[in-house]
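Researcher: Next entry in the queue.
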Amino acid sequence: MPSSMSAGRRALLDGLADRIVGISPRRLRVAVDGRTAAGKTSFAHELAAAIRRNGRPTLRASFDDFKKPFRDAAERGYDRLTGEGYYRNAPDFETAQRMLLEPAGPSGSGTVCLCGHDPITGVDHRHVTVEAPLDAVLIVDSVFAMRPEYNEYWDFRIWLDVSTELSLARGVERDSDSGDRRTEVERVHRDRYQESERIYIAEIDPTSKADVIIDNTDFANPRAGPPDREPS
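Model: Structure for this entry, 232 residues:
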């Protein structure tokens, strides 16, 4: 969570929170989707806080924690390194559906797993669960949230829009820990993440499924509505 935010950003988040809690008094599931480094995680944290200000409990998860472990890719010969392979083979749809999205729904059990496999350590956390109150709002940040394997579960879908150029610049800056590593990080972002997002956007057209599109180019001044530029 940022230490502070602009008045405009807070107003937009509060308006979204009002809209979401007005959907139903029962459990809800919200997707925050967008390109790599669009600002999804921070936005989802802030949205959860705004929803709690409305008196509703929240749960937070990320589909980064619902991917198949890299050891599975090695053992089964999965391609996880190219854009095509990352898009086709990385998501653990079954765990995300059965342990996160279904139980967090209005008619679900309420026993929710918020992390499948830790993406850094590979540790299996599927035995760790929390109980979701009957009025809880689950907010999940993810690239690819509107894939057909997930799309039916959402009660509200948000697309955070940034250009491919800004996505690359932010992602490389975020993931580079030294000048020597920067070239490799940029290659991974271009060849794996951007290529997988190109496939996703071409096949799924996620903006057509979004309930709201937020231009998040300027963190201090996010704007609801389609971007002024042509989609890339």
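Model: The CA atoms of residues 125 and 217 lie 34 Å apart.
Researcher: Noted, moving on.
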